[in-house]
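Worked example 3 (structure in, sequence out).
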């Protein structure tokens, strides 16, 4: 695995990014441009480590961000950009933004105005789901992609290194209660590994209890924060996906 991580997003609206997972997606970064703000410190993060101290850049509030998003959407309409979905993601964990509800409501209105028919979704590390207001806000979105790489607390701490006080079992409980979610499970090998047989068995069991609409099984394709992380071969990812579907009936797609 090459070691270079990628630079942070340098604008509020970025992309479009074309991927099999999301189609043509415009990313929305509601977090600072100069440093990552995240509730996790995943060993495989493409942006590098989450540093304890950021920079002096202030967090921009919803009215100001929505103005920028409106202007960027209008620009993409003028340029004829194809947009299948608009996805809250970017420089860290979007659910940490204090104006999340206002942002989600505003982005949906802007979607209706500029890209009717496009879905509004979020990529989240799932840690803030234990907060009722975050759960309610996520419920307003068209699609929710929830990170779930680890089926037990020890693996979660080793791979995702949550930085807040989130309780693992409470997070799993909240995932079970959130309707119509898509789980994203990153598998890695090398210096950190979540593909060992006991972990996979437990992962299948816990994913089966969460009952998501589907699971996206994937591996690293860029530089990682920790060194020595190795991409999982596609055949192994496919075996993991097949085992999950056979055991639980939950559809699983492989992306590598
Ligand atoms: S949750 Fe995402 S942004 Fe945060 S450390 Fe993990 S991979 Fe990076």
């Amino acid at each position: 695995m090459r070691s270079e991580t990628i630079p942070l997003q340098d604008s509020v609206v970025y992309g479009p990014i074309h991927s099999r997972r999301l189609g043509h997606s415009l990313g929305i970064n509601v977090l600072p441009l100069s440093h990552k703000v995240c509730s996790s410190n995943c060993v495989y993060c493409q942006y590098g480590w989450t540093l304890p101290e950021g920079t002096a850049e202030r967090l921009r509030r919803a009215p100001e961000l929505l103005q920028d998003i409106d202007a960027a959407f209008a620009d993409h309409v003028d340029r004829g950009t194809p947009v299948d979905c608009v996805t809250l993601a970017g420089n860290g964990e979007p659910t940490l933004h204090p104006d999340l509800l206002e942002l989600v409501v505003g982005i949906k209105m802007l979607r209706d105005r500029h890209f009717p028919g496009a879905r509004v979704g979020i990529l989240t590390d799932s840690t803030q789901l234990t907060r009722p207001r975050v759960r309610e806000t996520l419920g307003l979105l068209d699609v929710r992609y929830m990170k779930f790489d680890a089926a037990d607390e020890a693996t979660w701490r080793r791979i995702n290194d949550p930085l807040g006080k989130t309780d693992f079992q409470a997070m799993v409980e909240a995932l079970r209660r959130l309707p119509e979610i898509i789980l994203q499970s990153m598998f890695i090998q090398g210096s950190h590994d979540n593909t060992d047989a006991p972990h996979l068995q437990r992962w299948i069991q816990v994913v089966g209890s969460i009952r998501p609409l589907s699971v996206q099984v994937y591996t690293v394709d860029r530089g990682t924060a920790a060194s020595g992380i190795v991409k999982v071969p596609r055949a192994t990812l496919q075996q993991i996906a097949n085992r999950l579907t056979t055991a639980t009936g939950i559809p699983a797609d492989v992306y590598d």
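Notes: The mean pLDDT is 95. The chain has seven helices and ten strands.
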